[in-house]
Amino acid sequence: MAPALVVPHPPAPINPDEAALNGGLRAHFFADTRDGQTLRSAREKEAKEANGSGSGADYTSVRPKLTFQFSLADYQARSARVALARAEAGEDKDTSLPDGFPQEITGPRAWSGQDLGPEGLARFTIQLSEADVAELEAALAHFKGLPGDNQPEHVSVELFPLPALGPRLVEISRELALGAGITVLKGLEPRRYSAWENVVLFAGVTAYLGDRRGCQDRYGNMLTHLVDMGFKYGCASKLNPTFTPNALPYHNDVCDILCLYVQDTAHNGGESILSPAAAVYNEMAATRPDVIHTLAAKTWVYDKDKEPTTWPTRSLLFPEPTHGPFFCFSRQKVTGSDNYPLSPSVPPMTEAQAEAIDMIHYLGEKHGLTVKLERGDMLLYNNLALLHGRNGFTDVPTVEGEGQKRHVLRLWMRNSELAWKTPPGLERDWFLVYGDSERRAKAHWGIRPEDTDKDRVIGHKLTCS
User: Which ranges carry the TauD/TfdA-like domain (predicted)?
Assistant: First the structure.
């Protein structure tokens, strides 16, 4: 059943204008954004032309102390400073929200980990029966027996028939789009199959969730192996955080449906963390509507692999007329990380922005779940309805087949019939992932972690984690 959400008014563009620099707290925080700098330059030029003197108001750019890993102490200190400044400016009385953003998201996606009780994740878990597993293995045998050189990219509902399980998987796709947004499938044992067979099984199950697979990077990778790539490339200083054993704070990928298939777990840690975006949004809207304005404003600068002539800006929070607003952002692209500090010329964010992006993580932890997956589990969820991250982990090196090393396969899927509306600010990203883009022309599947190219792991600031 679709969320019982009153459809908000069509969203109006949120563009900073001249009023942003006219005084008050917003002027203080807006001044350091790219748009603020542009307006300031215009004012300075006007002032110089008017009186022949130097400049207008003196706005000082100071990059906030903000790290890739969330710091509760830094967040609390910054929130106290922002609260004091807002009170002094008399701006703490404004409870308005941007056009297109409702007071509350209701319906099945508006759950909180705090309300699930002792059963926790069990509410979203489906145990495959022996008959289900047998049907999956029969579909695998059918696909392998087809004439021609069939590979994972050829897997479809027609070539991977699941007469009994298939309709239930289709219902899961509806639950992901219209319900709570998460399902865990349990019951497979990856060690029974080869690496290639596991990829085909994964592609077969997820084919029933959506009709379009996403290309996950500019190199054409359709499948990602989430492992500590130090085993292949050593402790390189430029390993992307995705491919290290470090924790990943809450963020989103660039996809509709995010699918994970656990090949093996870490010796310690590595749990997924998931949090319903609706619960995070609702608490922000109720207690700090100014943060909704900050996150929805198109004033956020994403760092790039190569320094552009001008830094483009975007939002981190987007309106959706049917299902309600959602977040879509990569924290690394905004804060930098230990291995990938921000480019020196990236315009500094404001204190209000630094507080806002940390508030996402803080409320994500408050309303979230820690998901301890087991070998063979498939975690399927709506990337727009849930924020996600992971805990840090420790592997035990494999020696002659013995050891324990976290290894998770990832696919991105889209269901054209059920997909949420893509806002204009994300249309280009979604085209690169799901459209007939240049990267899709290079599409390929690396069957094993060892097949992951160096360019995928080192020297590339991924747009997601």
Answer: 155-412
